[in-house]
Design goal:
Elements: H1 9-20, H2 25-32, H3 36-44, H4 63-74, H5 80-109, H6 126-138, H7 148-161, H8 164-172, H9 174-183
Helix pairs in contact: 2-3, 4-5, 6-7
Length: about 190
């Protein structure tokens, strides 16, 4: 039987009776085929039960984060959306940092030696050069596309024009790239 999100009037009367008989919430829920949470909501305030409207979609930010956004916006010229994005970015950064720290701790506990290496360096990933070349070819002379399929066709056509010697040269440039990154202490090599 598919249930709604509130108890019907007969179900409420049944719950009231079962409460007077000191039945457990689990037993009440089983008898009227509803969740314990639904029973809890009704029993916590039977008079107001079912009168409040749904507030809609769940919040993306916690109330504390919303207050932080409001406080930050009141002290800046940025929009609330921009400040919210910054807060979300900071939350993401802290999550990433915790993950990195826990990964390092795990590797150290297993006595795994880790090399110092710049994280996600585009200088050490030849495909980044291919993407740049492909992008400039697809959008040459400011070309714009009217549909996704038209864009896909253009990308496929330009991809097929890439010559194997170009890819070989990129791969052969790796020792030089690594040397440059080491010289720049992991910084951008240009």
């Amino acid at each position: 039987m598919k249930r709604g999100k509130t108890l019907t009037m007969p179900e409420r009367a049944q719950v009231d009776l079962m409460v007077q008989l000191n039945m457990s919430i689990s037993l009440m829920s089983a008898r009227i085929h509803c969740s314990r949470t639904l029973n809890d909501c009704y029993m916590s305030d039977p008079v107001a039960y079912g009168t409040s409207k749904s507030t809609g979609r769940a919040r993306k930010l916690k109330q504390r984060d919303e207050r932080n956004v409001a406080r930050a916006v009141s002290n800046t010229m940025k929009s609330a959306k921009d400040v919210g994005a910054e807060i979300q970015l900071n939350v993401s950064k802290s999550t990433i940092l915790r993950t990195i720290q826990s990964t390092r701790a795990f590797l150290a506990s297993k006595k795994i030696k880790v090399l110092d290496w710049p994280a996600c360096s585009p200088n050490l990933n030849p495909i980044e050069s291919v993407w740049g070349f492909l992008t400039s070819s697809v959008y040459k002379n400011g070309k714009q596309y009217n549909s996704i399929s038209e864009l896909k066709d253009a990308v496929k056509a330009e991809w097929n024009k890439i010559h194997p010697p170009y890819l070989e040269n990129l791969c052969n440039s790796m020792p030089n790239r690594i040397f440059q990154v080491i010289q720049k202490n992991g910084g951008f090599t240009g």
